[in-house]
Specification:
Elements: H1 10-24, H2 27-33, H3 41-51, E1 55-59, H4 67-79, E2 83-88, H5 91-105, E3 110-113, E4 118-119, E5 125-129, H6 130-139, E6 147-152, H7 165-173, E7 179-184, H8 190-201, E8 204-208, E9 216-222, E10 225-228, E11 259-260, E12 270-274, E13 282-286, H9 295-313, H10 322-335, H11 344-353, E14 359-362, H12 366-378, H13 386-400, H14 405-408, H15 413-422, E15 424-427, H16 433-444, E16 450-453, E17 467-470, E18 474-476, E19 481-483, H17 486-493, E20 505-510, H18 517-525, H19 539-549, H20 551-558, H21 562-591, H22 599-633, E21 639-643, E22 650-656, E23 667-670, E24 675-677, E25 691-692, H23 704-720, H24 722-727, H25 741-756, H26 765-792, H27 795-809, E26 813-815, E27 821-823, H28 825-830, H29 838-846, H30 855-863, H31 883-905, H32 919-926, H33 931-935, H34 942-960, H35 967-980, H36 983-986
Parallel strand pairs: 1-7, 1-8, 2-5, 2-6, 3-5, 6-7, 8-13, 9-20, 14-16, 14-17, 15-16, 17-20
Antiparallel strand pairs: 3-4, 9-10, 11-12, 12-13, 18-19, 21-22, 21-25, 22-23, 23-24, 26-27
Length: 991
C-alpha cells in the first residue's frame, strides 16, 4: 500500500470511485451505510479481512474505535445466519456490551452469559466472559453449533498472570472454521502475536494503528495551574519513540523488504508495510521525533531539589542521634516544595474553569476515591443544574427501587446519591455492581461530571471523558508501592477524548513533591508495551485435553501455545549469546596461563576452598534457624515471650499456633496492642516463655478493648514475674561453637593443597587469578544461558508432564494394560470444576468434606475455596459456625497441606491456602440475616461481599452439575444457591 502526495490523477480518482461502487454492494458497504460516521482506514481494512474470510488482530489506542470491527463480525454472522460470541475479560464490560448490542439488534437476538447471570443463552449473538466460552469448549456445549465468529475484546489481557491463560485456551480450542476478531491495546510485539495467531488459527491479518482520532494533550497541574508537559504544541501522535518495534527483543523477527511510504499530510506520520514469513499482513504506524519537556517544569523540579538540599544540610546538631536526624530530614524532604498542592475539590474546580469536564481522576485506592467524593461534598461543590439533578434523582431511584430498604444504609446509598446529584461519584470494585452501572450510564450521558476511580475502570469499561487526571504515578500492587508502567499510563490516559464529542482530550498529572517532569514525559512518550504470555497448564485444562485428545495429542496442542511460541523464538537470541561468550572464554583461558603449572587446576582449588568456608558459615546459619523454628513450635496460647531486636522488639503473648503450617508462625499480641504473626526471620535467636497467662474464652482479637485488656494482663504478669524474666536470656550458642570435624578437615586439606601447588609461588599469581575469576564468572553465566535454552525447549510440555504426574498420583489418570492413559471417575468430576483451586475442590468433594453440610453451611464452606483475603487481613482461625463446618474445614486444610507437598515435589506452582475470613459473613447471609448484620465486625465493603457471593454461587453451580454426584448433594447445592442469591446479590440492572 502506498500513499502519494499531491492531487490524485484522473485514473486514480476513477479507480477509487469504482472501488467504492463495488464495496457498496458488499456486506461491508451495507454496514458502513448503517453508521453515522465514516470508517477509519484501519477499521475498513480489518472489516475487509473479516469479509474475505480471514481472522484479524486489531491493535489500536483506547478510544480509537476497535470495537467497530467486532460489531462488523456480529453483523456478518447475522447476515450469514451464523452465531457470534463477544467475549470480554470482566463482567462489567460484558453487561455494558450486552446493553449496547441489545439496543442495536433487539433483545431477542442478544444473550448474556457471565457465570452468575444467564439471559437468552441460545440467541444468535451472545456476550460472555472469556472463562464461560472456555468452559463451553471443554464441555462440548451444543451452544457452539453454527458458531461463525468470536470477538475477543481486550485480548491483551492474556498477559494477566492470574487469568490470562484462558484467552490462549480459547484461541487454541475454537473450531478451525470459526473466524476470530482479536481486539487489543497497542502492543509492541503485535507482529509476533499475529504470527502465532496465524500458526494456530490460519490466515490472520494484523492491523496496527497508533493514531488517535481525538488528539491527546499532556499536562501537569502545578498547584491550581495546568501547565503543558511538553514545550510547544505536542499531541499524542507526535510523542512516540522512533519505532514501535524498539521494545522488541533482539531475537524478534526482522522486518525485511520494508517499503517506506511518502508522508500523509493529514496523519503527519509515515506508514510502513512489512512482510513476514507467515501469511499475516501487517500495517504499522511508526511515529516521529522526540520532543522537549517544558523548561518551566524542569526549573520547578530544580528549585524544589535545591530547597530540600538546603533544608537537609541546614539543620541538626551533633548531639542528635543520627537515625533520628535522617528520619526527620526524610520527612522534611517529603514535605518541602515551592508548590502548594491543590485539594481535590480545587482540582475539579480548576478543570471546570478551563472547560475540561467531564473528567476521570484515577486514585489508586478505594478509600481515596470515597474520601474524594466526601471532600467535594463537604466543600459545597455543585457541578449540576437543577434540571440535571431531577434527571439524576429519577434514574437513581429507578435503579435502586428493588434494593431492600434495610440494606440502603449499609450500602452508603444516601451519600452516594447526594454525590451523584452534585455531579460526582466514586467508581471502584468495593461498590455494589448496580451502583457502578448507574455511575457509568450517568457519566456517559454527561450528567455526572467528575468520577474518582481506581485503575479497574481502565480495563475496558466504556467511560470516555474529556480529561483524565492522575493523582500519583505510583500504586500499591499488593506487595509494595511501585511506579506505574508506560503501558498502564497509556491505558489510563487513553480514556481522555470522546470521539464525536471532543475536539481534543487532555491528560493531567498532579504535581507531587519529588515529581520528575522528564520521567512523566518518558511515560507519556512510550505508548506501547510487549505482550507476554502467562500461559501454563492447569489440572482442569490438562485433564480436559486428555479426555478429548489423549495424552500424546494433548501434549502437542499445548506446545502450540503462545507461551511456547515466544520461548522458542527467544532461544535463537540466547544461542547467539552463548556463541559470543564461548569466544570470550577462550581468550580468558589464554590470559590466565602460567609457566609454572596448570593455573586452571590452581584456580579450582581456590574456588573449592572459598565454597567450603561459605558452606560452613551457611551451616551455622541453618542451625540457628532450626533452633529458632523449634522454639516457635513449642509455644502454646497464653505463653508470654520476649522478642529481642527487630520491629517487634518487646514482650508478646501467644494467641494461636497453626500445627499444619509449613513454617511455624504463631499469632501474637504485642505489648502495644498490635496483632502480628512472628516467624523465624523476626527473631535473632530461640525464644522460650518468660511466664504464662490465661486467655479468656470471650477474647476477640478484632475488638480493640479485648486487645487492650489482654495486653494489660500481660504487662501485669511480667511485672509479677520480673526475676524470672531477667533470668531468661537469649541463646547465643546454636550448638556450633566449633565447626564439625569433617568440615574443618576439608578446609585444612584444601589450604595445604593450595600452598603446595606450583602456581602458588608465581609472581603473577594474582593477575592470573583475576583472569581466572573473569573466566569462572563468564563460564557460570554461559552455563546458565545453556540451561535456559534447555529449559525453554518444550517447557510447556514438561510442565504438562509434571501436572499429569500429580493427577496420576491422586488417581485422576489411570494407565490401562495397553499403556493408554484414561480418565478415572474422580477425573471426570475434575473436568467440570474450574478455578484456581480446581484440584483442591475436587479432593474436598472426594474426601466427603461436604457430605454432612446443610445448604447454609455449604455456602460458608464454598467461600473458603474462592475467597482471597488481603495479606493484612489474614489472621487467626475463627471459631466455626457449626461442628460440621469444623470437620469440613479440617478435611480441606489437610488436603491442601498434602497437595502443597506434592506440588512442591513436582516443581509446580503451589495451590493457594483455603481462606476462612468469609465463612461467618457468608453463613449469616445464607441464614437470611440483613446485610448490615452480615458485614458488622468485618472490613468487607458491600461491593466486595456481593462479588465474592457471586463467585460462591458460581462454584456451587459447578458442584451441582458434577457428573455422578449424589443427587442429595446436588439438591443441597441448588438450595444453597437459592439462599445466597437474594437481595443485593441477586439484584442487577441487567435484565
Amino acid at each position: 500500500m502506498s500513499f502519494l502526495s499531491g492531487s490524485p490523477s484522473p485514473s486514480d480518482r476513477y479507480q477509487a470511485a469504482a472501488h467504492r461502487a463495488a464495496e457498496a454492494k458488499t456486506y461491508l458497504g451495507a454496514f458502513a451505510l448503517s453508521l453515522d460516521f465514516e470508517l477509519d482506514d484501519f477499521q475498513r481494512e480489518a472489516c475487509r479481512s473479516l469479509q474475505e474470510g480471514r481472522g484479524v488482530l486489531v491493535a489500536a489506542p483506547t478510544g480509537a474505535g476497535k470495537t467497530i470491527v467486532g460489531e462488523f463480525a456480529i453483523y456478518l454472522a447475522l447476515q450469514r445466519g451464523l452465531k457470534a460470541f463477544y467475549t470480554t475479560p470482566i463482567k462489567a464490560l460484558s453487561n455494558q456490551k450486552f446493553s449496547e448490542l441489545s439496543a442495536k439488534y433487539g433483545a431477542e437476538n442478544v444473550g448474556l452469559l457471565t457465570g452468575d447471570t444467564t439471559i437468552n443463552g441460545d440467541a444468535p449473538v451472545v456476550v460472555m466472559t472469556t472463562e464461560v466460552l472456555r468452559n463451553m469448549l471443554y464441555a462440548d456445549s451444543e451452544t457452539l453449533g453454527d458458531l461463525g465468529f468470536v470477538v475477543m475484546d481486550e485480548v491483551h489481557y492474556l498477559a494477566d498472570r492470574f487469568r490470562g491463560a484462558v484467552w490462549e485456551e480459547v484461541i487454541i480450542h475454537l473450531p478451525s472454521e470459526v473466524q476470530v476478531a482479536s481486539l487489543s491495546a497497542t502492543v509492541s510485539n503485535a507482529e509476533e502475536f499475529g504470527a502465532w495467531l496465524d500458526t494456530v488459527r490460519g490466515d490472520t491479518d494484523v492491523i496496527v494503528s497508533e493514531h488517535r482520532p481525538v488528539p491527546l494533550w499532556q499536562h501537569v497541574m502545578v498547584g491550581r495551574e495546568i501547565v503543558d508537559l511538553f514545550a510547544g504544541d505536542t499531541t499524542f501522535d507526535e510523542i512516540a519513540p522512533g519505532s514501535v518495534d524498539d521494545a522488541l527483543d533482539s531475537e524478534a523477527p526482522d522486518l525485511s523488504e520494508s517499503e517506506e511510504v511518502p508522508e500523509e499530510p493529514a496523519a503527519s506520520a509515515r506508514q510502513v508495510s512489512a512482510k513476514r514469513s507467515s501469511s499475516a499482513k501487517v500495517r504499522q504506524v511508526v511515529a516521529g521525533p522526540e520532543f522537549e519537556v517544558n523548561p518551566d517544569l524542569l526549573a520547578m523540579a530544580r528549585s524544589e531539589s535545591r530547597m530540600n538540599l538546603s533544608g537537609r544540610f541546614g539543620h541538626g546538631g551533633r548531639s542528635r542521634r543520627r537515625q533520628d536526624r535522617y528520619r526527620d530530614e526524610r520527612q522534611q524532604s517529603e514535605q518541602r516544595s515551592p508548590v502548594r498542592k491543590a485539594s481535590r475539590p480545587q482540582v475539579i474546580e480548576s478543570l471546570r474553569r478551563q472547560d475540561l469536564l467531564p473528567a476521570i481522576t484515577f486514585i489508586f485506592s478505594r478509600a481515596g476515591c470515597d474520601a474524594a467524593v466526601a471532600q467535594c461534598a463537604a466543600s459545597g461543590l455543585w457541578l449540576t443544574t437543577e434540571r440535571e439533578q431531577q434527571i439524576i434523582a429519577q434514574r437513581v431511584d429507578e435503579a435502586s427501587h428493588e434494593i431492600p430498604a434495610d440494606d440502603l444504609d449499609v450500602l452508603g446509598f444516601w451519600s452516594w446519591r447526594d454525590g451523584l446529584l452534585r455531579g460526582f461519584a466514586a467508581h471502584h470494585a468495593g461498590m455494589l455492581p448496580t451502583f457502578k452501572e448507574v455511575v457509568e450510564k450517568l457519566f456517559a450521558d454527561g450528567l455526572v461530571k467528575a468520577v474518582f476511580a481506581t485503575e479497574t475502570l481502565a480495563l475496558g469499561v466504556n467511560m470516555p471523558a474529556r480529561c483524565v487526571v492522575l493523582e500519583k504515578l505510583e500504586k500499591f500492587n499488593g506487595e509494595a508501592h511501585v511506579n506505574i508502567t508506560a503501558g498502564e499510563y497509556t491505558q489510563l490516559t487513553g480514556r481522555a477524548g470522546r470521539r464525536g464529542i471532543d475536539v481534543e482530550g487532555h491528560a493531567v498529572v498532579l504535581w507531587q513533591p519529588g515529581t520528575d517532569p522528564a520521567a512523566v514525559a518518558g511515560l507519556a512518550s512510550r505508548r506501547t508495551y510487549p505482550l507476554n504470555s502467562s500461559f501454563r497448564p492447569t489440572y482442569n485444562m490438562s485433564i480436559n485435553l486428555i479426555a478429548q485428545f489423549g495424552r500424546v495429542r494433548a501434549r502437542e496442542i499445548l506446545e502450540s501455545s503462545f507461551a511456547q511460541f515466544q520461548a522458542d523464538r527467544s532461544v535463537v537470541g540466547l544461542a547467539r549469546q552463548v556463541r559470543g561468550r564461548e569466544e570470550s572464554l577462550a581468550g580468558y583461558a589464554k590470559s590466565m596461563e602460567c609457566h609454572l603449572g596448570d593455573f586452571t587446576e590452581y584456580a579450582k582449588l581456590r574456588r573449592e576452598l572459598s565454597d567450603a568456608e561459605n558452606f560452613a558459615a551457611r551451616d551455622h546459619q541453618r542451625a540457628r534457624k532450626t533452633r529458632v523454628a523449634d522454639s516457635l513450635t513449642r509455644l502454646i496460647p497464653g505463653d508470654i515471650i520476649s522478642i529481642h531486636g527487630g520491629r517487634l522488639a518487646g514482650h508478646a503473648v501467644v494467641l494461636d499456633v497453626d500445627p499444619n503450617a509449613r513454617e511455624p508462625r504463631p499469632s501474637v499480641l504485642t505489648s502495644d496492642n498490635q496483632l502480628r504473626r512472628i516467624g523465624v526471620h523476626d527473631l535473632d535467636g530461640p525464644v522460650s516463655p518468660v511466664t504464662r497467662i490465661r486467655i479468656p474464652k470471650a477474647f476477640n482479637a478484632k475488638v480493640p478493648k479485648s486487645r487492650r485488656d489482654l495486653a494489660a494482663s500481660m504487662r501485669h504478669a511480667i511485672s509479677e514475674d520480673a526475676p524470672q524474666s531477667r533470668r531468661n536470656s537469649r541463646h547465643e550458642d546454636f550448638g556450633l561453637g566449633a565447626r564439625l570435624p569433617d568440615q574443618e578437615q576439608k578446609i585444612a586439606d584444601l589450604r595445604r593443597a593450595l600452598r603446595s601447588h606450583p602456581c602458588h609461588g608465581c609472581s603473577e599469581r594474582e593477575d592470573h587469578a583475576r583472569w581466572s575469576e573473569r573466566w569462572w564468572k563468564l563460564r557460570k553465566e554461559t552455563d546458565g544461558l545453556v540451561r535456559q535454552i534447555q529449559g525453554r525447549t518444550n517447557t510447556i510440555a514438561k510442565t504438562f508432564d509434571r501436572v499429569c504426574d500429580v493427577l496420576s498420583a491422586y488417581g485422576y489418570l489411570e494407565t490401562n494394560d495397553a499403556g493408554h492413559v484414561t480418565i478415572s471417575t474422580d477425573g471426570q468430576r475434575l473436568r467440570r470444576i474450574y478455578g484456581e483451586k480446581d484440584l483442591l475442590i475436587s479432593q474436598a468433594v472426594r474426601r466427603g468434606a461436604i457430605n454432612d453440610l446443610d445448604a447454609a453451611e455449604l455456602a460458608s464452606f464454598a467461600s473458603t475455596l474462592v475467597y482471597q483475603a488481603k495479606r493484612e487481613d489474614r489472621g487467626l482461625r475463627p471459631k466455626m459456625p457449626s461442628v460440621s463446618l469444623e470437620s469440613a474445614v479440617d478435611v480441606v486444610i489437610r488436603e491442601w497441606s498434602q497437595l502443597e507437598d506434592t506440588e512442591e515435589h513436582h516443581r509446580l506452582p503451589l495451590t493457594g491456602e483455603p481462606e476462612l475470613g468469609l465463612m461467618w459473613p457468608m453463613f449469616k447471609w445464607a441464614k437470611g440475616r440483613h446485610l448490615q448484620e452480615v458485614l458488622n465486625g468485618t472490613d468487607l465493603a458491600a461491593g466486595d461481599f456481593v462479588r465474592w457471593a457471586k463467585q460462591v454461587v458460581d462454584l456451587l453451580d459447578q458442584l451441582a452439575k458434577i457428573p455422578q454426584l449424589d443427587p442429595r448433594l446436588a439438591r443441597i447445592c441448588r438450595d444453597s444457591i437459592d439462599l445466597v442469591r437474594r437481595g443485593v446479590v441477586a439484584y442487577s440492572t441487567v435484565s
